[in-house]
Design goal:
Helix content is 43%, strand content 11%. With 702 residues, it is α/β, with parallel strands linked by helices.
């Protein structure tokens, strides 16, 4: 025990040392003495360091609204009194707010957004904070770790400090379109007549065939790649590799955007959306084109869908994984389309922490909600998949609806009909309309179009207007009729089928419609329309190649890793079918796990192609419809060879889903309906194949 006096002296020494330490600490941080409370000093230090980073960023042209919000919020919470440190921070806040333009603060008092109340020495930032609205994130994937450690290869900020991210213009965007020589006339020409006119200098087309005439129309922006001709996955990945290499070597713009040749791009909305994001951060902007998870795979990374945009920083960070042919190698290993491979690299290879918000595509939402960036069209399973809008052109004049979209967006275009000349056209021909369609919301200009309807009409179903459907002999086959009137396809061709049994089956579909005509339930009619119209403009070999592409991604070739019960079930149910297929066609297919593709010999495609070549386009269309529905080439071949029933084939294609239902139960209005629809589609595909396959002899009772 120390004497009382020694204890007091020792306590005084410790107090003196603590005071000196605080003074030296404050002097070291701010260069001046500050006897404010320790908590206030820490707050001042935190805000000041943040402000120092902000000043460094602003010198390079990167002022983020988030920094202003942080300073304003911190100052509002902690500045209850004034010392020298807080006065210094206050002056910085005032200068930054006065030197920054907040477009969304229009209508508010901008003369003095930061008012200082000298009486109680507090700061009122309500006006400033109310003007700093958080950017609504929509259909985006943003890397949150980029704020901590920004990465970029080229010094974009040093190039032009005035080009802030919120001042993005069309010249800051590089747009690439991949196509193939077979689609130069059918697709690229349509894009030239429509949205390409709004971004001539920014759009570059990547193809596999020389076309001097088309290149001249594009202003020299048609780039011939070294890729093989075709629209298959490997060829598409090759073109995507060429796009990325071309961009990295020749351009230093803020954004790289990719779209397909079947996309209409709303350029105005694209630029407007890109203004919300900083190209010096790792940003992936896109939207999946699927309304539900894929049956074969559940991707844990982003998918491109109807196009995507990558920020300057993200392309630079992905460069080690996409340059010098590495992208094509990754695409071949994971066995997914090129746009999905981009998501795989950004979400897996470089381990970005992506988050995204996107809505499910639904019908009848035109002219509602926020603007969309891209619109697509397609023709799958005998039905059009296109935008459902009522425009100045009918579906025969504008089957893709791109011309109608363009005239709604830009009614001043020379070839667009004037609003007073657009009359409602009544179509007296029997043309069943599609059942699947995307929602679409054009830019704000559409809202000003004088002839737009208050509610878009729904063409998917129409009232039954006939008494009886029948057939009659025609040149080259049998014509489908309703009340002795000839039925036509969506492209305006006569609905004439080759075999009488098929004609009778199609007429039964028409007679089965009760009060309304539902094209979604008329699979045989839709398949017949597909063969006659050939909307994809494919020849016999291209159709066979498309069918064989499903073998490398066959749903029964991918086994789960867990749980063990599911793995055992898959082995029990799938392996016997694979063994039958290998023995039947002498193709040793080996199963796989995870994302790796199944092991298939190099000559397997030629062997299987020999079995499919004798089939005509009618039989191939039925076979293709079954393959697309089951996501399995092996199960489809077992079906047409009578090795499996329709019910069994559908069950095997949904094995994982059925396993989950057995454990957790089913949703009657969802799972049961989906099961019945899948069985209906597969049964129609097999029937369509059998009724058109002239090598098979059907019983006379059919």
């Amino acid at each position: 025990m120390f004497p009382p006096r020694r204890r007091c002296r020792k306590l005084l020494v410790w107090i003196a040392l603590a005071v000196v330490a605080q003074i030296m600490f404050t002097l070291f941080l701010h260069g001046e003495f500050n006897f404010a409370p320790i908590e206030r000093t820490r707050t001042t230090k935190r805000i000041t360091r943040r402000q120092s980073r902000l000043r460094l960023q602003s010198q390079g042209g990167d002022r983020l609204e988030e920094d202003h919000k942080f300073i304003a919020r911190s100052k509002l919470e902690h500045a209850r009194g004034k010392d020298e440190g807080t006065e210094y921070v206050e002056s910085l806040v005032v200068n930054e707010i006065k030197s920054t333009d907040f477009p969304r603060m229009s209508g508010r008092n901008l003369k003095n957004p930061l008012r200082v109340n000298r009486r109680n020495q507090s700061i009122n930032l309500s006006t400033a904070i109310s003007g700093l609205q958080v950017v609504k994130e929509r259909e985006i994937f943003v890397d949150q770790s980029a704020r901590k450690k920004p990465y970029f290869d080229h010094d974009l900020r040093a190039e032009d400090p005035r080009r802030l991210h919120n001042l993005t213009v069309l010249e800051d965007v590089f747009i690439s379109i991949k196509t193939t020589g077979d689609y130069h006339e059918a697709r690229v020409t349509l894009l030239i007549d429509t949205w390409f006119q709004n971004a001539k200098k920014q759009v570059h087309f990547f193809t596999d065939r020389e076309d001097n005439e088309l290149n001249e129309r594009l202003g020299g922006h048609l780039i011939k790649t070294a890729c093989e001709t075709g629209h298959q996955r490997t060829k598409l990945c090759c073109k995507m590799q060429a796009e990325l290499d071309f961009f990295v070597k020749n351009f230093n713009t803020k954004w790289f955007c990719h779209f397909d040749d079947d996309n209409y791009v709303n350029v105005h909305t694209l630029v407007k959306t890109l203004k919300k994001f900083n190209p010096l951060e790792n940003v992936y902007l896109g939207r999946p084109s699927l309304t539900k998870a894929m049956e074969r795979k559940k991707f844990w990374f982003a998918t491109g869908g109807a196009g995507f945009c990558l920020s300057h920083a993200l392309v630079a960070r992905m460069s080690p994984h996409i340059s010098d042919g590495k992208f094509a190698d990754s695409c071949e290993r994971v066995k997914v389309p090129d746009d999905c491979t981009i998501g795989f690299i950004s979400g897996g290879r470089i381990e970005l922490y992506l988050r995204g918000k996107y809505g499910v595509l639904q019908s009848n939402t035109l002219f509602k909600g926020d603007p969309e960036i891209s619109f697509s069209h397609g023709y799958f399973g005998g039905r059009y998949n296109r935008i459902n809008i009522a425009g100045p052109f009918d579906t025969e004049q504008d089957p893709t609806r791109f011309k109608s979209i363009h005239c709604l967006l830009y009614p001043e275009t020379g070839w667009c009909p004037k609003s007073e000349d657009v009359n409602e056209q009544k179509n007296h021909e029997v043309v069943p309309e599609p059942s699947e369609k995307h929602d679409c919301v054009p830019s704000d200009k559409v809202l000003l179009f004088p002839t737009r309807p208050s509610k878009p009409p729904d063409f998917t179903e129409r009232k039954r207007f006939y008494n009886k459907a029948g057939i009659e002999e025609a040149e080259g086959g049998y014509q489908i009729t309703v009340d002795n009137k000839k039925v036509k396809t969506p492209a305006g061709n006569l609905l004439v089928v080759l075999s009488k049994p098929l004609a009778m089956a199609v007429s039964v579909e028409w007679n089965s419609q009760v009060d309304t005509i539902k094209p979604a339930n008329m699979h045989l009619t839709s398949l017949s329309n597909t063969v006659i119209d050939n909307p994809r403009t494919r020849n016999h070999d291209q159709q066979i190649s498309h069918i064989l592409e499903f073998l490398s991604s066959d749903s029964i070739c991918f086994f789960a890793d867990e749980p063990e019960e599911l793995v055992d079930l898959q082995r029990k149910e799938w392996i016997p079918i694979m063994e039958w297929f290998n023995n039947k066609y002498s193709v040793p297919v080996e199963p796989s796990h995870g994302l790796l593709a199944a092991t298939i010999p190099d000559d397997a495609e030629e062997r299987l192609k020999a079995h499919l070549t004798p089939l005509d386009s009618w039989s191939l269309t039925g076979l293709e419809f079954a393959v697309e529905t089951l996501k399995s080439f092996i199960l489809t071949m077992a079906l047409i060879e009578n090795h499996l029933t329709v019910e069994k084939a559908v069950h095997l294609s949904r094995l994982e889903l059925e396993f989950q239902i057995s454990r957790w139960g089913s949703v009657e209005w969802a799972h049961d309906l989906e099961l019945m629809e899948t069985r209906s589609r597969v049964a129609a595909a097999v029937l369509f194949y059998s009724l058109n396959n002239r090598r098979r002899t059907l019983p006379s009772s059919s």
